[in-house]
Amino acid sequence: MTAGVDPVKLMKQEVGKAAADRVQSGTIVGLGTGSTTAYTIQFLGDRLKSGELKDIVGIPTSFQAEVLAKQYGIPLTTLDAVDHIDIAIDGADEVDPQKNLIKGGGAAHTREKIVDYLADQFIVVVDSSKIVDRLGSSFAVPVEVIPMAISPVMRAIEKLGGKPELRMGVKKAGPVITDQGNMVVDVKFDSIDDPANLEKSLNNIPGVLENGIFVGVTDLVLIGEVQDGKPVVKEM
Ligand SMILES: O=C[C@H](O)[C@H](O)[C@H](O)COP(=O)(O)O
């Protein structure tokens, strides 16, 4: 491995590129959020620039993805202008053996869920640290909440057995505010036995906009690993 280079960064780069390589000319592409898909967006821009890839349009899942797409020369569109998405590529915070996910570490899970669920093919890009036996093992479930409902939503979440914590900003005083102007509550559960049921129960609380549990939607997971000092990509 290249001396001094962070192995997690190398895995993210490799897997981000592997996903970008799967995008074909003439397609509508959902552009995910986070540090891994940032590489995918960069490599898509490289392929467009070299002429190897032509006529793609992106649908960003966040302000971050929009800014990166503009930076790397990827034309953008909106869900009002298209009737389908061919492929979406997005990161995840946890992936279980059934390819269910926890997402929202970057507070973008609401727009991500809209875009990723609409795609004909949904590819998840992660480094190997994100693979878990059971969702919730190490990551709390992000829940986007309309600000005036924060207190009742947190009480309702406690009744479901979760431990909610309002996500606070870094280099910003006060709570994290999402791209939609809402807040995020991170909810730790002792054990998530039935992700599909928990996803529905959380979304059923008045004031919850969306939570970060994604069930039964992932087609392919590309996993970046380091083997014999070199980054490799595995499929799940
Ligand atoms: O809200 C953010 C997203 O769900 C990200 O895709 C997720 O947090 C993974 O991000 P990263 O690739 O930076 O680990």
TrEMBL record:
Substrate binds at residues 33-36, 90-93, 103-106, 130. It is an enzyme of class 5 (isomerase). Belongs to the ribose 5-phosphate isomerase family. It comes from the Bacteria. The keyword Isomerase applies. It catalyses: aldehydo-D-ribose 5-phosphate = D-ribulose 5-phosphate. This is Ribose-5-phosphate isomerase A. CDD domains: RPI_A. It comes from Gloeocapsopsis crepidinum LEGE 06123. HAMAP family: Rib_5P_isom_A. Keywords: Isomerase. Pfam families: Rib_5-P_isom_A. Pathway: Carbohydrate degradation; pentose phosphate pathway; D-ribose 5-phosphate from D-ribulose 5-phosphate (non-oxidative stage): step 1/1. The active site is at residue 112.
